[in-house]
C-alpha cells in the first residue's frame, strides 16, 4: 500500500495580511482552513464538503493513497 504523510501547518499573522490575500487569490474565502489532497489544491473546508456531496472526494483520496478499497 502507498504511504502518505499528513501535514498540518499553523499560520499566524493578521487577517488581511499577505498570506490571507494569497489564499483568497486561490479562491479560498474564508482563506483558512485550506485543504490539499495528494499535494493538489482542493480549496476550503466548504469545497471538501462539496466534493464529498458530489461524490468526487472519495476518488481524490484514493488517488492520493490516503484511503484504499
From TrEMBL:
Principal localisation: cytoplasm
Assigned keywords, A-Z: Cytoplasm, Redox-active center
GO cellular component terms, semicolon-separated: cytoplasm
Residue spans crossing the bilayer: none
Subcellular location, record wording: Cytoplasm
Gene3D superfamilies per UniProt: Glutaredoxin (3.40.30.10)
Residues annotated as signal peptide: none
Superkingdom per UniProt: Eukaryota
Family: Belongs to the glutaredoxin family. CC-type subfamily.
Protein name: Glutaredoxin-C11-like
Species whose genome carries this gene: Salvia divinorum
Lineage: Eukaryota, Viridiplantae, Streptophyta, Embryophyta, Tracheophyta
